[in-house]
TrEMBL record:
GO biological process, one term: cellulose catabolic process
Signal peptide (residue range): 1-21
Catalytic reactions on record: Endohydrolysis of (1->4)-beta-D-glucosidic linkages in cellulose, lichenin and cereal beta-D-glucans
Keyword rRNA processing assigned: no
Pfam families per record: CBM_2, Glyco_hydro_9
Domain Glycoside hydrolase family: 202-628
Protein's recorded name: Endoglucanase
MF (Gene Ontology): cellulase activity; polysaccharide binding
Catalytic residue list: 563, 607, 616
Ranges of residues in domain CBM2: 24-97
Length: 643
């Protein structure tokens, strides 16, 4: 195995003498044939204001340098890189600043090169002195996380290895004189920048999660497609009479378009945008988020081919799961399945009505002529679908039997019928919908403690929305009972490291969904301190408090092998088949922002592509998670006094 050399970090601070240097620790956290991973930790003795710059230099060329906590603003011969702060970290509090990066080696199988770092406060990096490399390397092997602002990782990714980190404290930084600063313009913090992001950069997580949904897109991709390894696919998805059913999201690591979880995901994402619009705006993701929701709702509108007809699935789950490859190369049959008056699907139609109604609120709030017109279109389809759901009763997975093996509606249709009525009331203010919701709530016995909030079970969401809309004690006590069961000491099991663990399949998903509900409930005045603390701990567990990140492309030691077919495939024209499924190497592409299923009840988790229970991703996994992250970000902004 080739050696891994430690980086020497030399820290220069503007307005301080050269002998007064801050300490850095550098770490090579992974090394493989074609590339390596590095981490720089700078111990800031006091607050950084006015921005910062950094020079990262190597004795040999390195390719495709990737990082996301700094911008690359200069590159000299792939050896000397000028880095500048991001808008959100121009000001940093004293403490440890960490920056991860990835790079490819110019010559595969070479040792990871020794690097130097020069860090400066508020000075444009234009004339830095050259730096020399130390003569005593540190050896280490190991695996860790990376953070990247691009889509493609090095072409050959590292194998799974045990972590043996190498830390090298640097104290002799006085040996290098400070650079001259002729005509230097100190970078000023922009007043529009958000406050310090805190322990985890929620805004970055929002950006990555939106990218995950873009990676799930089916159909004709836009010219502004931001996931370069994804191309047009399934353009010929059609209904029984040739109806265009292209578009929408692929459900998970496969390529079926399951309408029920897709609609549920769209509802929860739209709900999060309605509640936490400011978080998306400050993160610069508001328009992208609307576009993300619209990709799903455009498809749901297409699938509503008649007032009393809706296509709830495209693709045969059994045929689809026999295929491992790119969606662009699919050749198997993709039949479409629909609900009709003769084959009803109350739950599916009512959930889709909820999604379109919630989205109509989000688009109406954008307050442009086109967005308000689109909101009206959404609302028209929502009303028709709810009427269809209410008139013809039945469980959709009984009518679409192919869905039963994958997304059977175990909770039945009653919760969705109440759910759809509530969202239509919220979108229209028509009290007939509220009357129907409250009547069905009592008739269907929805007052009991909810098991979990998910694509299948809306009871807790129903309780929360009715509590918020009516302010009545019966709904308030119901939602508090449901949420209290998730708090420490309640009926929900906790893992040793603190995840509220409901079930093995998608364990992160249930905790994230409940975290979102808890944040919304806290905003309504229900146990705000307890519910916000619960939500924060659950989301932080997934972001890294567990000892690793469960979000692909984010934080410390994120998953590299999610059960996700398209990201496991190398770029065309290279072949992709079941050999890629069994390949122990990391996925060829980073599925940025995807939340994997999660650990078992003892916090055990293996980054194994073949384990679809703990390591698959899905549109419904990210929906509640993303909305909870938006809630935490808005709470942070409010606490910081951001306007």
């Amino acid at each position: 195995m080739s050696c891994i050399f430690g980086f020497i970090a030399i820290i220069l601070i503007e307005n301080f003498p050269a002998s007064s240097c801050e300490q850095a620790q550098t770490e090579i956290v992974d090394n493989w044939n074609s590339g390596f991973k590095g981490k720089i930790s700078i111990n800031l003795n006091n607050d950084v204001t006015g921005g910062w710059t950094m020079i990262l230099s190597f004795p040999v060329a390195v390719l495709n340098l990737q990082l996301w906590r700094a911008k690359i603003v200069g590159n000299q011969n792939d050896r000397v890189f000028t880095l500048k702060n991001m808008p959100w970290n121009a000001q940093m509090s004293e403490g440890v600043f960490e920056l991860f990066f990835l790079a490819q080696k110019a010559v595969p199988k070479d040792s990871a090169p020794i690097g130097n770092v020069v860090f400066r406060r508020g000075v444009p990096a234009t004339s830095y002195p050259s730096t020399t490399s130390p003569s005593s390397p540190q050896q280490s092997t190991g695996g860790s996380s990376s953070s990247s602002s691009r889509t493609n990782l090095p072409s050959a990714s590292p194998p799974s290895t045990s972590r043996l980190s190498s830390l090298q404290p640097i104290t002799n930084c006085s040996s290098l004189p400070p650079p001259k600063t002729t005509n230097s313009a100190t970078a000023k913090p922009t007043t529009a920048s958000p406050p310090n992001p805190g322990k985890y950069d929620y805004a970055q997580v929002l950006k990555l999660s939106i990218l995950f949904y873009e990676a799930q897109r089916s159909g004709k991709l836009p010219s502004k497609n931001r996931v370069p390894w994804r191309k047009d696919s399934a353009l010929n998805d059609r209904g029984e009479n040739g109806e265009d059913l292209s578009g929408g999201w692929y459900d998970a690591g496969d390529y079926v378009k399951f309408g029920f979880p897709m609609a549920s995901s769209a509802t929860v994402l739209a709900w999060g945008l309605i509640e936490y619009k400011k978080a998306y705006e400050v993160a610069g993701q508001y328009e992208l988020m609307l576009d993300s929701i619209k990709w799903a709702t455009d498809y749901l509108i297409k699938a509503h081919t008649k007032k009393e007809e809706f296509y709830g699935q495209v693709g045969d789950g059994h045929l689809d799961h026999a295929y491992w490859g790119r969606p662009e190369n699919m050749t198997m049959a993709r039949p479409a399945f629909k609900i009709t008056p003769e084959k009803p699907g109350t739950d599916l139609a009512a959930e889709t009505a909820a999604a379109l109604a919630a989205a109509s609120i989000a688009f109406k709030a954008r307050n442009t002529q086109s967005s308000k017109a689109y909101a009206e279109t959404l609302l028209r389809h929502a009303k028709e679908l709810f009427a269809f759901a209410d008139k013809y009763r039945g469980v959709y997975s009984d009518s679409i039997s192919n869905a039963a093996d994958f997304y059977r509606s175990y909770s039945g249709y009653k919760d969705e019928l109440v759910w759809g009525a509530i969202w239509l009331y919220r979108a229209t203010k028509d009290t007939s919908f509220l009357s129907k919701a409250t009547r069905y709530y009592n008739e269907f016995g929805m007052n009991g403690q909810a098991w979990a909030f998910s694509w299948d079970d809306k009871k807790a969401g129903v309780q929360l929305l009715l509590a918020a809309l009516t302010k009545k004690a019966t709904y308030q006590s119901a939602i508090q009972s449901s949420l209290d069961s998730w708090l420490p000491g309640g009926s929900v099991t906790y893992t040793p490291k603190g995840l509220a663990w409901r079930a093995k399949w998608g364990s992160n998903r249930y905790a994230a969904n409940t975290a979102f509900l808890a944040l919304v409930a806290a905003d309504q005045g229900f146990r705000p301190a307890s519910y916000r603390e619960f939500a924060k701990k659950q989301i932080h567990y997934m972001l890294g408090d567990s000892g690793r990140s469960f979000v692909v492309g984010f934080g410390h030691n994120p998953p590299q092998r999610p059960h996700h077919s398209s990201s496991s495939c190398p770029s065309a024209p290279a072949p992709c088949d079941w050999s890629n499924f069994h390949d122990p190497s990391p996925n060829a592409h980073v599925l940025k922002g995807a939340l994997v299923g999660g650990p078992d009840q003892n916090d055990n988790y293996t980054d194994d592509r073949t384990n679809y229970v703990t390591n698959e991703v899905a549109t419904d996994y990210n929906a509640g998670f993303q909305s909870a992250v938006a809630g935490l970000e808005q709470l942070r902004l409010n606490d910081a006094g951001a306007s």
